[in-house]
Amino acid sequence: MKVIDHIKQAKAPLISFEILPPLKGKGISAIYNHLDPLMEFKPAYINVTYHRSEHIFKKRSDGSFEKVVIRKRPGTEAICASIMNRYNVDTVPHLICGGFTIQDTEDALLTLSYLGIDNVLVLRGDAAKNETSFEPEPGGHKYAIELLRQVVNLNNGIFLEEELKSVNGTKFSIGVAGYPEKHFEAPNMQTDLSYLKDKIDAGAEYIVTQMFFDNKKYFDFVKICKESGINIPIIPGLKPITTKKQLSVLPRTFYVDIPTELSNEILKCKTDADVEIIGAEWLLEQSRELKKSGVEVLHYYTLGKTHVIANVVKQLI
Ligand SMILES: Cc1cc2nc3c(=O)[nH]c(=O)nc-3n(C[C@H](O)[C@H](O)[C@H](O)COP(=O)(O)OP(=O)(O)OC[C@H]3O[C@@H](n4cnc5c(N)ncnc54)[C@H](O)[C@@H]3O)c2cc1C
User: What 3-state class would DSSP assign to 1?
Assistant: First the structure.
């Protein structure tokens, strides 16, 4: 079932979880171990992130270097299918521009459609680890909106091969990313919002936000989205802080602020076990306030912290 239909049919805020494919070699059991304790909360759907290949330089025995392409977390499409099969729950694979030609994208979309997957979260993806800024694959998309238009075309039965006519289209419900604290490359919030609005006008049905730790940032974002004519569900993305190190890692990686009240409490902690307690309490308070405000879905970035998320959701519902 489509995310947007889950939202339309819901009588109360839904819960969704986001997971990463396991590191290569860990096996699908890593996903099941992670998800088993979360399934009692009846998530409406589960998102699975996509991770592009990286280039590394490997030293040869003669001292020269060889460029090697590695993918640490492959298998997004197959993991979605495995999760649907095991838990009978809908999945939302993330689909990115980076590393894909438009032909690769079409093939990936067809694979997802054949697997019975009705949803995609359409993203540009970040720069590859060895690049300073995002570089599209030659013959690939530069911005998420271009990828989104390809999905919409395929939904309308328009394939890359123009001679394919009167064929069955796909049926994807499309979500896109939104940034309550602005995407880091955008010159200002209004410009970022105008590109977000373009994605909605092109067919996106809901927005999932970057993580945030201050609900005011989310509420302000919803308000300016509405003022800009964006009237689709804006699903808050939520994550617990569980280590002291994240006080610097999260702002550096995701360009998000950590409120002083929270960072002060975390700085007082002696161990990461203490940080986890503070982070969970904060997440619970954020979730309660968002739930009360009437959000359609609470979307949790689980990032390997099953027990923390499980404790928070248990107290919330
Ligand atoms: C909920 C969520 C899930 C994510 N999951 C993944 C994942 O699974 N895998 C992954 O690699 N990354 C993921 N990301 C990270 C995401 O790929 C990055 O944040 C990326 O830098 C931007 O993606 P986007 O889809 O927002 O890009 P875009 O919408 O393309 O925007 C990128 C930048 O370009 C600007 N822009 C947009 N359109 C145009 C245009 N037409 N002309 C000029 N400028 C434009 C925007 O303002 C923005 O600054 C996720 C992010 C979020 C919020």
Answer: coil
Average pLDDT over residues 21-45: 96
| Ligand 1 and 255: CB distance under 6 A | no
Its pTM stands at 0.97
In this predicted structure, the answer to whether residue 130 has a pLDDT above a threshold of 90 is no
pLDDT of residue 68 exceeding 90, the answer is no
Paired sense of beta strands 54-59 and 65-70, if any: antiparallel
**Residue 94 Cβ contacting ligand 1 at under 6 Å:** yes
**Predicted confidence (pLDDT) per residue in 259-281, tens digit:** 999 999 999 999 999 999 999 99
Where does residue 144 rank: exposed (0-12), middle (13-18), buried (19+ CB within 10 A)? buried
CA nearest ligand 1 atom 6, residue: 49
% residues pLDDT > 70 (the chain): 100
Ligand 1 atom closest to 76 (CA):
8
The Å distance, Cα 265 to ligand 1 centre, comes to: 32
81 contact partners, CB below 8 Å, separation of at least 6: 91, 115, 116, 117
Pocket lining: 186 vs ligand 1, CB cutoff 6 Å: yes
Residue whose CA is closest, atom 5 of ligand 1?
49
Q: Which two tokens stand for residue 51?
A: 């991770």
User: How far is the centre of ligand 1, averaged over its atoms, from the C-alpha of 256 (Å)?
Assistant: 15
Long-range contact pairs involving 27-31 (C-beta distance under 8 Å, separation at least 24): 28/79, 28/82, 31/79, 31/82, 31/83
Per-residue DSSP letters for 162-194? TT--S------EEEEEE-TT--TTSSSHHHHHH
Would the pLDDT of 69 be above 90? no
Whether 228 has a pLDDT exceeding 90, the answer reads: yes
Give the Cα separation of 50 and 75 in Å (integer).
8
Joined together, the tokens standing for residue 273 give: 């076990």
Complete DSSP assignment for 242-264: -STTHHHHHHHHH-----HHHHH
Confidence at residue 71, expressed as pLDDT on a 0 to 100 scale? 87
pLDDT at 213: 98
**Is 237 touching ligand 1 by the criterion CB < 6 Å?**
yes
